[in-house]
Amino acid sequence: MTGIEKKMNKICVLGLGYIGLPTAAMFATHGFDVFGVDINDDVISVLKNGEIHIDEPGLKTLVHGAINSGNLKIFSEPQESDVFIIAVPTPITDQKKADLDFVSSAARSIVPYLRKGNLVILESTSPPRTTVDLVQPILEESGLKGAADFFLAYSPERVLPGKILYELVHNPRVIGGVNPASAEKGKMLYQGFVEGEIILTDTTTAEMVKLMENTYRDINIAAANEFSRLAAKFSVNIWEAIEIANLHPRVNILKPGPGVGGHCISVDPWFFVEKAPHLSQLINQARITNDSQPEYVISQLIDDFDSLEGKTFTVLGITYKPNVDDVRESPALVIIKKIQDLGGIVKAFDPYLIREIPENSFLTDNLSDALLNSQGILLLVHHHQFLELKPENLSDKVLNKYIFDSRNVIDKKAWKAEGFVVRILGDGRDD
Ligand code: SAJ
After folding, report:
1. pTM to 2 decimals?
2. Which domains are delineated in the chain?
3. Distance between Cα 264 and ligand 1 center (Å)
């Protein structure tokens, strides 16, 4: 390929979300010229005003540094570059099918700017073969040929929300190329800031690796959730049982909870099911099990309260996991909706929630308001603020002393001593 030695100074990052923004800022603070592109005007104006639209430790400082240095510039359309990184969302439809419209339109928006020797990288989590079957043909509408004229690779993000900046640098990075030269080119690029090992492979392997990691975690959590139901039935404390089982050198069971949320683990396994349902039966069942965990929580409440009609419940935490502000696919929202459908009243408090969510009349501004007239407290997300809760400070604020802890974080004895009825998810032991 001519231009193979072409430098990679200019990088255009398409999509300034959870992954695109930190990636753009990271390259910019490592000396690259970065054009950050987003189709959302609100995102652009927030960034241009020196703010950020994502709550992630350290990100604001990094983005400020990148913009102030002049290395990160924000645009609403792609710019001529040496490298194009696609980091747009891949949502899931109600029918559990991958919606690849953002990927297609991002790829299409690159076409007029694509030049010989450029490198294009897809980072968005995608069903197997998306890079070769969808992205490559779109890019080739430019008249250039993948592998022959431009480099094309798939390199999934694998960072954990809450630890994005650390993991972006230190996690191992997989880069799958449409040919070995594309993977190599990708490696040269990410070496700009990645300190973890960089592993090269083909695009479809890299796509599968990403999906397998999250699917493995989903299946493990589904097992934990099923074990929690069995433990409750057999009067066992699942938390103690898992701790003991995990002492075995080859066992590592994850934790049960109110369900699996977030835009990754609760979504990605469906990409396998969609593409090959008959080959993905365990994966499909794990999704069904985890998606039914909110219903299981409700069944526990009904056991304790008989009817939820007219009763007020305090929900602590509505994000999909602790210490983040993200409510995407959050099981807490499903539980809230189910309580409301059964005639119950919900007052929810979440110290992390900084963004507006639709139909949020159940949200309160502070804990005291959420506890007013409460007949039951449901601890659904173990934000660090909630770990400090003391039953003696809450007992005269509620109407009825009841707490359901779906994360096993409260001190059962202390709450009982304060007169609370305590139910812990998966703890069937009466002590
Ligand atoms: N959860 C449990 N029990 C557990 C662990 C998690 O019920 O033992 C629940 C959480 O409460 C949450 C959901 O699972 O609702 C997912 O949380 P998570 O912390 O397991 O994962 P995510 O979605 O925040 O991030 C995952 C990570 N994937 C893996 O660990 C394999 C991350 O590395 C990926 O980059 C990210 O998905 C992604 O973007 O795909």
Report:
1. 0.93
2. 3-202 (3.40.50.720), 293-424 (3.40.50.720)
3. 7
Cα distance between residue 87 and residue 13, in whole Å? 7
Q: From the CB of 297, is ligand 1 less than 6 Å away?
A: no
| Contact partners, residue 241, CB within 8 Å, separation at least 6 | 227, 231
Cβ of residue 264 lying under 6 Å from some atom of ligand 1: yes
Ligand 1 neighbour 282 (Cβ under 6 A): no
Which residues are catalytic, by number?
210, 264
The tokens for 200 are 């090269």
Structure token digits, residue 155: 């390199």
Tens digits of residue pLDDT in 378-422? 999 999 999 999 999 999 999 999 999 999 999 999 999 999 999
More confident residue, 353 or 249: 249
